[in-house]
Every structure is written in C-alpha cells, then in structure tokens.
Amino acid sequence: MKPVVGALLAFAVSLVRSRMALHLEILALRHQLAVYHRSIRRPQVRLIDRLVWSWLARGWSHWREVLVFVQPATVRAWRRQRFRNHWARLSRRHPGRPAIAKELRELIRDISAANPRWGSPRILGELRKLGIPVAKSTVEKYRGRPRRPSSPSWRAFLENHVTELAALDFFPVPTIGFKVLFVLIGMGDVGSKTTCAGS
Question: pLDDT digits over 173-195, tens only?
Fold first, then answer.
C-alpha cells in the first residue's frame, strides 16, 4: 500500500513542478528501474500493485511503454483473473436453481399417487391449470413411480427352462487332405448329436 500512496503523492507534487525538473526526475527514475531490473529477477507483486496496473491498462494507452517489472501479457492476465473472480463471487451467492417448496413436492406426489397412469406431461398440464408454473423436469423428479416386480435372475431362468433349451453350433474343419468338413453340433434334453459332412 505504501508504494501506491507514494506514487500518488509524487503525481500530485509533479503537477506544480517545472517541465525540466520533471524530465530530469523521469530520467533518474528510469535509470534506477533499469538497475533494479538488472539485479532483481522476480519482483514481489502484491494485490494492490495488480489493481493499480489493471486500472492504468484500462485508461492509459501508453502503459506498455513504461512497464518494466512484468510483461504486458501478465497485466492482461491479471485483468482477466480479476474478471473471473468477480463473476465467481456473484455466482456463489445464488448457486443452482431455487429450491422447490415442500408443499409443491407433496402435491406432485399426491397427484401421481392418485392417478398412477398419468405421465409427467399430464401432471404438468394439471398444475398449470391451477396456475402453478413448474418445469417438466421438476415433475419427473418428484412424481411417484410404481414399483415393478423384480425380474428373475439369469440362473433362475436356466434352472426353470433347462429341459426346454437346445444349443446348436455349426463350424468348418479343414482336414489334412485339403478338404473341408462342415460340423453341426446339437445339444438338448435328449443328449448331443453330431453331424459331419465333407465337401
């Protein structure tokens, strides 16, 4: 904070000084900046320094010519980060959609339970007739769904129908005499049968 206040005071004093004195002071300051730039590789930059240079970059067209301690791209990155932080703070105040009232959730469930054959569009239409503006996704989220009986597992299906199942496989087998045998294998309740044919 002190460097910023000092710079503002120096600016106020420079308004009443002579033009020659200002040019000599600018020359001395530029020389000192060159020495610091040569000896210090990475200067320590605080938040107030970033704000000052973001403000200068917005309102002064020659800010790139006097910038020494960082690159102009760094100042532009500071401005973009400040913009992102500003909108991130605004978005954190009201995250997501507003909560649905408990009475409305219960009303959707009651309508769905009383009319199990109604889908979301029908319930949505009835709510709009009552003057309740609500989205279709909200109705789909809170309406009740009838529970379906669980289907049997694959193992239970095989155990129940093992006597009624049959399996077939058909594949070619090349022989040592450069012929091809076509093999058909059938498996069922009676047993297994194998049929071979040569071409």
Answer: 988 888 899 999 887 765 444 44
